[in-house]
Design brief:
- There is one protein chain.
- By secondary structure, the chain is of the alpha/beta class.
- The protein has 2 domains: 2-169 and 342-356, Glycogen Phosphorylase B (Rossmann fold, 3-Layer(aba) Sandwich), CATH 3.40.50; 173-338, Rossmann fold (3-Layer(aba) Sandwich), CATH 3.40.50.
- The chain contains 13 helices and 13 strands.
């Protein structure tokens, strides 16, 4: 089988993790398949035996011209290489149809359901590019049942087209380095749905209650832009918790992996997720995980994470208390459960779906 993966525009983060690990394990599971990945100018570690890399150079401004050059590249490869199927790793791909089955991976519908969390320009670009990708696709891979349900509810005319739920893997954490680092409590701040201000307020409450002291792990919020670090530093000062908090930028992969491997607790009080990969990564690493009562998180965690009673600082503080006292038996049960989230399974399920499209 010959499969083209359109990964143009897939930068750092969860979608990059998806592309890299899907390709890696696809080749292991199906060594006779031919895989080609289309990239822009991004640095993505996908080159390996069995995977060919093609690139499309996009002039500035990238957001304006990328769809045009991506369309040309996808259609050219479809015409000359003749793949059996094309996977768009994000819902932005060729603007024009192709003569081979095209499947779009749908990660979440947050820009439609939580529009206030996006600048107007980004929301408009997503709306236009995603709707066009949905229109030219023959089928859809959704990363959770929650995402598939949202997709069908928001785009009912597409219900008749084939779709499948394929959960991410998380077994890539087995390759993360086991190095000695300070055991932080990790939270994430790269998007507004991660509720960073609520995390800081809950941390203040735990300090005031004596749960967090000078001898307990510090809170490390990762993935912050320079502007958000400056703004949050002011809040940290106002709350009087500077000695107990670290505000980190986007980290290099090795640094982030070491931080996750050595952490004490993973905090993920997000109010909207398509999947919530750090939840399963944390469980596979044997870490207590705190989550918000989000629909996709419920689906993925299946009761193996400490869930907040609501999206408030006191509810988060209560959940952190519980996580800090999580029993070894509960942590082991979570790790055993999370072990079923493998990229080999994701590759097999995706390939099986492609075969049904003929």
């Amino acid at each position: 089988m010959k499969v083209l993966v359109d990964a143009v525009g897939c930068g750092n983060g969860g979608i990059s993790t998806y592309v890299v690990n899907l390709l890696r394990h696809w080749h292991v599971e199906f060594p006779d398949d031919e895989l080609r990945v289309l990239l822009g100018d991004q640095d993505m570690q996908v080159a390996r035996p069995g995977v060919t890399v093609s690139r499309v150079s996009v002039p500035r401004p990238d957001l304006l011209w990328r769809p045009v050059f991506e369309t040309r590249a996808v259609r050219r490869i479809a015409r000359t290489w003749r793949p059996d199927a094309i996977i768009a790793a994000r819902p932005s791909t060729t603007l024009l149809g192709v003569d081979v089955p095209l499947v779009v991976v749908v990660h979440d519908l947050r820009h439609e359901l939580r529009p206030e969390q996006f600048p107007a320009s980004r929301r408009a670009i997503r709306t236009l590019s995603y709707r066009r990708a949905y229109a030219v696709a023959r089928g859809y891979v959704c990363i959770s049942q929650r995402t598939l349900t949202d997709f069908h509810n928001l785009h009912p005319r597409l219900r008749s087209r084939p779709a499948v739920v394929v959960h991410h893997g998380a077994d890539h954490v087995a390759d993360w380095p086991r190095t000695s680092v300070e055991p932080y409590v990790i939270a994430f701040g790269h998007h507004s749905n991660k509720n960073v201000e609520m995390v800081l307020e809950a941390w203040r409450d735990l300090i005031a209650a004596g749960v967090v002291t000078a001898s307990t792990p510090r809170l490390n919020i990762v993935g912050l832009t320079e502007q958000s670090r400056t703004e949050l530093d002011g809040l940290v000062g106002d709350l009087g918790i500077r000695a107990h908090v670290v505000l980190s930028p986007y980290l290099a992969d090795d640094d982030f992996h070491a931080l996750m491997v050595g952490c004490a607790v993973v905090l993920f009080p997000s109010d909207f997720e398509g999947f919530g990969l750090p939840v399963v990564e944390g469980m596979q690493l044997g870490k207590p995980v705190v989550v918000g009562p989000d629909e996709a998180i419920r689906e993925v965690a299946q009761g193996h994470a400490t869930m907040m009673a609501g999206f408030t600082a006191p509810a988060l503080a209560d959940a952190i208390r519980a996580a800090l006292n999580e029993s070894p038996e509960a942590i082991a049960a979570a790790r055993d459960y999370a072990a079923s989230f493998t990229w080999a399974r994701a590759a097999r399920q995706t390939r099986e779906f492609l075969l049904t499209l003929g």
